[in-house]
Amino acid sequence: MAKVLHKIIEEQIKTWEIDNISKTPRTPKGNPFPVITISREFGALGAALANHMGDKLGFKTWDKDILKAISEKLGSDKKYLESLDENRRETIEDVIVGFLKPSTNAGYIRTLNQVVRSLEEHGNGIIVGRGANYICTDPKAFHLRVVSPLPVRTRHIAEQQGISKGEAQALITKKDQERAGFINHHFKKDVANASDYDLILNSSVYSLDEMMKIAMLAYEKKTGLKLVLHQ
To answer: What is the CATH number of the domain that holds 84?
Structure first.
């Protein structure tokens, strides 16, 4: 099974490399750069920052692609896996669902760990959410969290999704609780614990470009590796 997973990841990375080979950064010895993980509050632009940094640095951004890799390994419906993604499933429900579907919450978490560690081994990537900072084992992996005040996130989500501010705030509260519950249940950690990250950025203060540049300086300080922006 490990070989199957490795093949899935390799195939996806090769596809990405064909499109990005001219801008893929490498260390002087040809080794991949340590991965970056981005934890985020819902509506704080964490995923947007990941995509922005990926484009500018030539790193592959792993977000929903992680679900694709897991679904291919488990032979499961991607939509079903989305119901497990960053969401805690109660143990009794998991047992019941286990009789109906092959990919229970336990299977999802086990495979998530394998996928994240495979991505970490390949390097040159940015992994969004899913407790990746608690799964990575490389001491030079860089762990970032993006936050923003609730009123700012509420306005952003309301405008983005065309809903009322009340609906946006309720959605934000739900998503934040689900993500926090996921981290607490599976990793026994508090997602808001600042010491679990190398850097925390407030997206209401800085633009995506400014956050990227701050993150680059912190990454270079931790890893000793110089990142290069691509035009």
So the answer is: 3.40.50.300
Residue 48 resides in a domain: yes
CA pair distance 177, 42, nearest whole angstrom:
10
User: Can you give the residue range of the structural domain that contains 200?
Assistant: 33-223
- 100-109 long-range CB contacts below 8 Å, 24 or more apart? 101/76, 101/77, 102/74, 102/75, 102/76, 103/70, 103/71, 103/74, 103/76, 107/74, 108/70, 108/74, 108/81, 108/84, 109/186
Residue 44 lies in a domain: yes
DSSP code per residue over 143-190: EEEEE--HHHHHHHHHHHHT--HHHHHHHHHHHHHHHHHHHHHHH---
177 within domain boundaries? yes
- Total structural domains within the chain: 1
Q: Which residues in the chain land under pLDDT 50?
A: 15-29, 76-78, 80-86, 88-103
Residue-level pLDDT at 205: 97
- Are 229 and 57 in contact, with CB atoms under 8 Å apart? yes
Tokens of 206: 């800085």
Q: What is the pLDDT of residue 9?
A: 54
Q: How far is CA 27 from the centre of its chain?
A: 23
Reading the block at residue 42, the tokens are 């819902």
Global pTM reads 0.77
> What would the pLDDT profile of 184-221 be if each residue is shown by its tens digit?
988 999 999 999 999 999 999 999 999 999 999 999 99
